[in-house]
Amino acid sequence: MQFAKKLQINILVKPNTKITALKQIKHHFIFPVLWLNETATITDEKAEVFRSKVTNKIKLLHFLQLALMVIGSVIFLGFLIAFFLCKGKSPK
C-alpha cells in the first residue's frame, strides 16, 4: 500500500511602484514558494491489519443497522397488534 501527499504554496507577484524590485515587472505572475512531496509505503502485513480494522468496523455497522431494523420492526408490529386488539374491545 502506498500513500502520497503533495502541497504547493504560491504567491501572486504584481507590479508595485512602492517596491523598487517590483517596479519593472510588466505582468502578473505566480511564484512558487514552497513545494512538499511526501510518500510512504507500508508492507503487505501492515496493509492487511489496516484493511481488516477498517472492514471489521464497517461489518459491525452493517450488523448493527440490521439489528436495529429488526428490533424496530418487532416493536412496530407489537404496537400494531396491541392497537387493533384494544380497538376491537368496546369501552364499558
TrEMBL record:
Subcellular location: Apical cell membrane; Cell membrane; Golgi apparatus; Membrane raft
Sequence intervals crossing the membrane: 60-85
Entry keyword set: Cell adhesion, Cell membrane, Disulfide bond, Glycoprotein, Golgi apparatus, Isopeptide bond, Lipid transport, Lipoprotein, Membrane, Palmitate, Receptor, Transmembrane, Transmembrane helix, Transport, Ubl conjugation
Catalyzed reactions per annotation: hexadecanoate(out) = hexadecanoate(in); tetracosanoate(out) = tetracosanoate(in); (9Z,12Z)-octadecadienoate(out) = (9Z,12Z)-octadecadienoate(in); (9Z)-octadecenoate(out) = (9Z)-octadecenoate(in)
One record GO biological process: receptor-mediated endocytosis
GO MF: low-density lipoprotein particle binding; low-density lipoprotein particle receptor activity; scavenger receptor activity
GO CC annotation terms, alphabetical: apical plasma membrane; caveola; cell surface; Golgi apparatus
Source domain of life: Eukaryota
Bilayer topology: Multi-pass membrane protein
A Pfam family: CD36
Similarity section: Belongs to the CD36 family.
Protein name per its UniProtKB record: Platelet glycoprotein 4
Lineage, top ranks: Eukaryota, Metazoa, Chordata, Craniata, Vertebrata
